[in-house]
Amino acid sequence: MPTSTRDTPGRQPLTDWVEAYLEHLQARKLAENSLRAYRRDLESITAELAETTGTDGERLPVDSVTAQTLRSAFARHAASRSASSVTRAWSSWNGFFRFLVVEGAASGNPMPVVPKPRLAAATPKPLNGEETPERLLRLIAQGARKARNPWPERDLAILSTLLCTGLRSAELLDLTVSALAGRSGERRLHVRGKGGSNRSIPIDESLEGVLEDYLESRRLRFGRRLPGGEPLFVNHRGEPLRRGGLQYLVRQSLRAAGVSDRVQRGAMVHALRHTFATRLAEDGANATEIAKLLGHASINSSQAYIDVTAREQRLSVRANRTHRVLGELSRGSESE
Description:
336 residues; mainly alpha; hpI Integrase, Chain A; three-stranded antiparallel β-sheet; DNA-binding; DNA integration; Integrase_recombinase_N; Integrase/recombinase XerD; DNA binding
């Protein structure tokens, strides 16, 4: 933390404390994407605070930030951003001020009186079509995705892992070779999840076989053994697969399998996670079980999959032609 004037931490520049907080988050082993998002949120609101107070952002002290200036800064910030972006920034600053209170740089957390948008409950967006996941995997295994340097074993392993474990993009990219642990037939994936939480996901022998085929193809492709600390998934040059590369792979695979029209708007890689969770709910898993497998901090997030599944089941029942006849009969009986 800033140390030049320990006796008056509140007079330290806000930007110094932002860096201290980001170091604190980094020590918690957050994913790179999460850290970048925190930095964007903290720096953008700091810039708005500087404009609101007429102070150089590099010199703005912590104790000059009040509930009133924060409300003004967030109002300016919200003018050109979506509700979800504003809510995320609010959460970032709420955590930041809790840190400042603990470090003695702020006497209290003003964020509870700073308004934030109300977000509609997120609706799961699985792949449309009962057989879509299976069609996708079969065609990718057959080499439907044409590339300059095709690697169907790798593509199939990535898509299968997403569909059979429900991992987030960042979690998948963070996996190492040693994350695949356990004896044959009892394998598990050790996952470092959101917020630094860890979980262990059991994998079926079928997925284990797909992963082993991929790892063998990788050894042959690059002619070397695979130390446990290496990334589990790599690009065609043997380098760690990045977020953009993963999104491109999934997009091209969906297109090659002829199912890109079955992805709901606003979903791509996440559609595979939603498909995994929705199928868990369809097979009778409860919210606690789904939360444990998906790494949800609250079972409320998992309950959405159960609610959607129940709603879809009710719609399917209503579509039964027998029910339409019963409706006509009941209306007829009322008119007599």
